From TrEMBL:
It is a multi-pass membrane protein. Core subunit of the mitochondrial membrane respiratory chain NADH dehydrogenase (Complex I) which catalyzes electron transfer from NADH through the respiratory chain, using ubiquinone as an electron acceptor. Essential for the catalytic activity and assembly of complex I. The lineage of its organism: Eukaryota, Rhodophyta, Florideophyceae, Rhodymeniophycidae, Gigartinales. It comes from the Eukaryota. Residues 64-114 form the NADH-Ubiquinone oxidoreductase (complex I) chain 5 N-terminal domain. The chain crosses the membrane at residues 27-47, 83-101, 113-130, 136-155, 176-197, 209-232, 253-273, 279-299, 311-337, 343-361, 382-401, 421-445, 466-486, 524-543, 577-594, 629-649. GO terms for molecular function: NADH dehydrogenase (ubiquinone) activity; NADH dehydrogenase activity. GO terms for cellular component: mitochondrial inner membrane. Its EC number is 7.1.1.2. One of its GO terms (biological process) is ATP synthesis coupled electron transport. Keywords: Electron transport, Membrane, Mitochondrion, Mitochondrion inner membrane, NAD, Respiratory chain, Translocase, Transmembrane, Transmembrane helix, Transport, Ubiquinone. It holds the Pfam family NADH5_C. This is NADH-ubiquinone oxidoreductase chain 5. It comes from Gloiopeltis furcata. The keyword Transmembrane applies.
Amino acid sequence: MYLLILVLPLIGSLVSGFGGRWLGSLGASVFSALCVLTAALISLGAFYEIGFSGTTCHISLAPWIESGLLQVSWGFLFDSIAVTMLVVITLVSFLVHIYSVKYMETDPHRPRFMAYLEVFTFFMLVLVTSDNLMQMFVGWEGVGLASYLLINFWYTRLSANQSAIKALVVNRVGDLGLSLGILVIFSIFNSLDYAIIFSSTPLVESHVFSFFGMKIHAITLAAFFIFVGAVGKSAQLGLHTWLPDAMEGPTPVSALIHAATMVTAGVFLILRFSPLIEFSPNILFILVLFGSLTAFFAAMTGTFQNDLKKVIAYSTCSQLGYMVFSCGMSCYDVSLFHLVNHAFFKALLFLCAGSVIHAVSNEQDMRRMGSLKAVLPLTYSLMLIGSFALAGFPFLAGFYSKDIILEMTQALTYSNLNTTYVSFACWLGGVSVIFTSFYSFRLIYLTFLNSSNLSRISFSSVHESSFLMSFPLVILGIGSIFVGYSLSDLFIGPGSDFWQTSIFTLPSHSLLIEAEWLPKHIKWLPFLLSVVGILLASAVNLIPSTSSLANAYPTLTSFFAFLINKKWYWDVFYNRFVVLPVLRFGYVVSFKLLDRGFIELSGPYGFSKFISLWSRILSTLQTGQLTHYVFYIVLGLFFFLSVAVFNFYQTKFHSHLLTIFFIFFYFV
């Protein structure tokens, strides 16, 4: 039963991909959706059996690699983390499949699209259910490949080509970090199996590497490379640039990437290696720092975006920062809880955005929309629910997870572990709440409530989506309302043993009790900050006089507007100081100097030129005159005798006689 969860998406991808021309566009879509639906139902059964019954399922299929100490087998581990991810992945993937049946109905390559979605789902399932690092890396790379294929699905568009290549290249950095982490872990534990690594970590806590006279803590080094892998895949600050550009793919792809696959892989990696990361305080500090900076940076950048999908993409980047932030505070269960809640309302937001784009003839600029509330009432209602959940409005999904993360930061600030970086991260997390609610309701105003900027013809053709597109939205809307409340006690409730040994937290790092006894005004603070953001968005869109505030400080306003609107110039920095120098080196040094220069001149090109040149030189010696030939014969005989005499002269016998003979021969 457990293996069917992985096998069914693989079968669906193969059948819909290779047999699409026989099944037809609709047949391939229905078959692939049925495969994922069956996998989702089995995942719910596995969730009940593993999570509620307190068991763990470990399946070992066959040996894979056997080379000395390296023993790797095909094995699958179904524990609390794995089954939770399985439910999220398969359920969101099924809803995206149903949505895509209608959304992609006019595309002639719909079977190929469905096959790519199934491949994406399959490799993500392999990633979360592996019981060793090597097999997990197969799923890790497969997810990157599937994301490239889906982002570049409309491969005739130059922007799609560029975005897909950018996503692939940027993720190579994180993949290299994870590869080095696998090598370091194998050098420490002589194994890649999770069971051996996690059970042996306390025994090697003091193990160090010697490198050029320096002592490097082994666990910290391994955890650092794991963190680098998570930064690339989960789009944390520095390697985040690929995520907004990934919007060039079809909207269902964006929903699947941002809600259930790809970006959640990095957070899952940190969660899976919590028994290792817990023994490295330096890495926990880095997680808090990078997570809070990412949340703040992405929230502020999303405020100035005008593309409907890019606003939601930056919100994903910001929420991933909260998840990493939570892992840095050793609140891994809260991070996973936020991941589950985020999957529902983020998939809802993206699919609602797809419904809007589908209705307004593929227009994505929010400034050209407006007044869509009357013609798209269902989409407006559900997008409003998703925006409230994203902003952390009480009793919706985001409220139960994001607010507890902020409460954990306050608890850490109030505890005796208070440090400067914790206070700094706490402030960044709080300010990010304001910007999150601001851009969420700026999106609502520009898209649905403000005056319309659509042409009369375009506005008259706007209509609500069909049942196949509306049904996934309703299901995700219900999840965005009730999932947080339903799972809060199970996932993060005091005394809950749902996670068992799949998540490890040192007792000294636990903050749950401190967060429960915070002052009431501290607990109300996230909600108040969200309200401030909503009121600011309302003031900017409803009160024209608020624009005078920007005119009061034109220089400062222009500076910050350009800085944030240009994404803090991260792309400019990379292009100018990384991409262009590498391209220049590749063309001038590697290509012109080495490939076209040294290698070709010393290789076949240079050899052929040498032969032709010397053949022409030697051919000029053939003049046909007898005197020239006699001269050549005498000259050759002279050189021959000179060499012979010189060699004989080196023996230092008869030196005077040889000298006289040489002079005589020379004059003759």
